[in-house]
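Q: Predict the bound structure with iron/sulfur cluster.
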Amino acid sequence: MSQSTLKIKPLPVEKFFTSLTINLTNKCNTYCKYCFRDSKKSAKDEIELKDIKRILFFFQKKQANVIELYLQLTGGEIFLYPNIFEIIKLALSLGYTLRLQTNGLLFNKMNHRQLEIFSSKKIIIKISLDGWNSKIHELYRAKGSFDKVVSGIKMEGTPNFRHSLRININNV
Ligand code: SF4
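A: Predicted complex:
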């Protein structure tokens, strides 16, 4: 196994940190006109699993006295990251409260066991829509994406889960 080159520096004012954000990948299964991350299907910029694990253990150990420790996972599309469920499970076991930022397009492809994890009270799923209907939403995002996101949000037959929905207000 190759040696990781990631250097984790001591935290300067560690007791004030309560939130950690990791950008897992810049790979994305859709496109948005305003994407500032240059995310696309062919993108290959990903943080290695072993480095993510090291960061999670390091931060959790340093912040052991913090009442609630938040981990936000973002991308690209986080559910394209190959080991995403392993990361989620590890983070939960270490006591993190997770905020999962996703475009919501892949819930329909998940199996029951994968979906079940979202019933954890320690997970908040964040999904953005660019309008209340497909006409407005798809001015900014891929065609057909509105219905896929909405059906993903409904996730019929899945245990209750918490999500926050951000609707961007747009002038058409
Ligand atoms: S869903 Fe997010 S990461 Fe993907 S193209 Fe849109 S803004 Fe970029």
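A: The chain has one domain: 24-167.
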